[in-house]
Amino acid sequence: MSATFSSQRFSIAPMLDWTDRHCRYFHRQLTGETLLYTEMVTTGAIIHGKGDYLAYSEAEQPLALQLGGSDPAALAQCAKLAEQRGYNEVNLNVGCPSDRVQNGRFGACLMAEATLVADCIKAMRDVVSIPVTVKTRIGIDDLDSYEFLTDFVGTVAERGNCDTFIIHARKAWLSGLSPKENREIPPLDYPRVYQLKRDFPHLTMAINGGVKTLEEAKVHLQHLDGVMMGREAYQNPGLLADVDRELFGRETLKVDTVAVVRSMYPYIETELAKGTWLGHITRHMLGLFQGIPGARQWRRHLSENAHKPGAGISVVEAALKLVADKIPQEA
């Protein structure tokens, strides 16, 4: 991580069913500096689940674990495990509005329980030395005044000793809207997040919600410490190739997206040998050539063939040939 910048300067949002380990490995081929997040993992899954819910590749670092839960003791146990496994940060989800999450008493509904959130953060901070952060909304339901937001942040910062907040600049409706609608219907309010930073200048604050370009990210960075990009980074991952140079000041050569695809081949071969289906990896790569002639053929070839039994590198290479010679070369 560039020493002159906060680790939160640019990150890719935790997205359920999207930012799995294959996605993160792929994103890391495009940007070395961006902070990556796991999908949200519940404390129950980590403590009681049969699988290894903390598994990741060292190549994904720097990497943060997002936890879902509201029991301070269970969160502390999971944070400790995360630190032992080498994660760079633990983040508490106080933003997800889905019914399933609410029923488990975590996610956005916790905004109404600032003292509990503070206790959760403190319990984790007491047992680990890595950063413990909060991702939250600007409000929930009718609890959407600026005073409510400042009370929440103030309580969690002071009582929980939390110094970093990632703010999704929309409120969440806990009933009546689906998670998808909650990402689109409540209006974005960037000025409210800017004001929050002015009122809490000692806290590290990153903004999330609706960021589609690196130019937009630069505007936010004039007001805040960091920007978290979500769906755009997933659906148009090619823009990540410019992050290290544009946002972190790294003097790097322009990333060759064709070379990025081929850099995935050893990883794909290893995963195929373990029984992973090719499509589970390539689904994250479909948007790489967005805006380039041949991108549709690339997507179609992978979509139609990567799920077939025995599909391997030859499928990816065939798809690549449909787009590679159409990519403009820099002089």
TrEMBL record:
Active site per UniProt: 96 (proton donor)
Catalytic activity: 5,6-dihydrouridine(20) in tRNA + NADP(+) = uridine(20) in tRNA + NADPH + H(+); 5,6-dihydrouridine(20a) in tRNA + NADP(+) = uridine(20a) in tRNA + NADPH + H(+); 5,6-dihydrouridine(20) in tRNA + NAD(+) = uridine(20) in tRNA + NADH + H(+); 5,6-dihydrouridine(20a) in tRNA + NAD(+) = uridine(20a) in tRNA + NADH + H(+)
Site entry: Interacts with tRNA: 93, 180, 183, 296, 299
Entry's transmembrane regions: none
Record: residues binding FMN: 14-16, 66, 135, 168, 208-210, 230-231
Physiological role: Catalyzes the synthesis of 5,6-dihydrouridine (D), a modified base found in the D-loop of most tRNAs, via the reduction of the C5-C6 double bond in target uridines. Specifically modifies U20 and U20a in tRNAs.
Protein name, UniProt field: tRNA-dihydrouridine(20/20a) synthase
Source species taxonomy: Bacteria, Pseudomonadati, Pseudomonadota, Gammaproteobacteria, Enterobacterales
